[in-house]
Amino acid sequence: MRIVVIGATGTIGKEVVQVLARDHQIVRIGRTSGDFQVDIASKTSIEQLFPRLGSFDAVVCAVGEARAGRLADLTDEDFMLGLTNKLMGQVNVVRVGREYINKNGSFTLTSGVLSREPLPGMAAISMVNAAVEGFARAAALDLERGIRINAVSPVWATETLEALGLDATPKMPAAQFVPAYQESVESRRTGEVLDVRDFVREPVTSERSSY
User: What predicted TM-score, i.e. pTM, was given to this entire model?
Assistant: First the structure.
């Protein structure tokens, strides 16, 4: 398959690329790097991207910004960041990309388990993650030509925690998220939310932490 990975150099995206590249042709998309560039917060940028890609069979979107903060401190702009970037950015990847993807192709979006396991200070992110999952479930009912769509729900990545100077258990490396993305791309699942913890191929502690 020829697979488009948006966010190919990010914490999750680079791990997805490394594994999928063993059996598939990968088109790496970044905001300022990669084979092509896109700003998912801009529908115009997305509309300019897809006609340039040529034939492709799957899209993995492993990028999207949203802002943490106490509810009392979050501004309209804080909420809008997640809505315009992580939510509508991924929604527009599907809306535009469905016109170009091959028959029986697939879209894989990224949410996060804060949609179902919220933490203090994460209301804006929980909202966006839940919306991404709701969109994937509903869009699966409308997509034609055998096109599939799923959302992968990661937990905290070890790399993210280290970058933020935080600690949490389990410390699950982003590489362990990849089997869920691989399942979304290579299986016939559609309209599902794939929790990365259900696809871990190496044991992790049972205590869970959210992302």
Answer: 0.92
